[in-house]
Amino acid sequence: MIITHTSNPSIDYYLELHAELHEGVQRAEHGYCLPGGKGLNVSMVLNQLGIPSVATAFLGGLTGDFISQAMKEYPCIRLEAARIEEANRINVKIRARKEWDVNAPGPQISSQAQSVMLDKLKHLLHAQDWLLISGSLARQIGESFLIRAAQLCHEAGAFLVLDVPGISASLIARLKPQLIKPNVQELYGLFPESQGKEEDVLIRQLQRQGVANILLSDGANGARFYTPHQCYRIEHPRLRAISTVGSGDSMLAAFVGMLQQGKSIEESLVWAAAAGQATAISHGLADREKIERQKDNVSIVRTEAKENANENYDGKNRQPAAARDSDSAVSAKSELSAYHGDR
Q: Could you tell me which of 41, 90, 142, 306 has the fewest CB atoms within 10 Å of its CB?
């Protein structure tokens, strides 16, 4: 089972204007509300792919009720919420030829609510499950909550995945994730004195700290997936984006979802890139049909760190051009687990 955790969920209020934004009163052509939060986005994309998940979140007030009701529309999502006293936040997303996002700070989470959530995670997690902790941390949630959640994950023999902006590289290493998914800006944010260094240098620095597997998203430039021995470069044509909100979450959802379904790393990356692209050209998160259409546009180039041997992977044929015999025999999940010796 895949379990997602959203610390600071939201209602995302979208306003779409055909004209450029300017000072004074303007009227939107379209306005709509969607449940938001990176972990919830992951669960919603998994639902589109027909993959069940348990979505955990702190919910309160009328906004929390809206989010809870919205999750009932997704048959593959089971919601496990810890109720809080304050209402969840409302974020404003303005689309007027460019993108403007105004995100509210969100509620404070009491120690009691945090304990309830940790107890839920303890009972939900089992061996070979995946726990994805995604999104910004709500107020009053600190290192101790993440450390305990990671401990519960490792004690259960589950895989830990982190996509939490704003935490330090040292804390990430302490949490011992099997996988992290920063974007390029977040990667540089992990190392405050890193400006001017190449991204590969920072990746190696993270890996030396024990963070073995890194899915690095780079917007329209594609993405890269790093293991200790290989780098997979994900390539796709540029598309005219409607909104980039949720693209990285869609990528992560498809990657983990397909690994959990037993797909190879290469095929999982094709699904990941297609999902990210499909969401970028959608109003909201992409559906499976749109994701399927994008798969043929994706290619994977694999570089062996030691031999410097390139292998091309065609998303249309979904087979490595020069695959090793062992690739089809070894589970990608086992490969990820093997890269973290103290699992």
A: 306
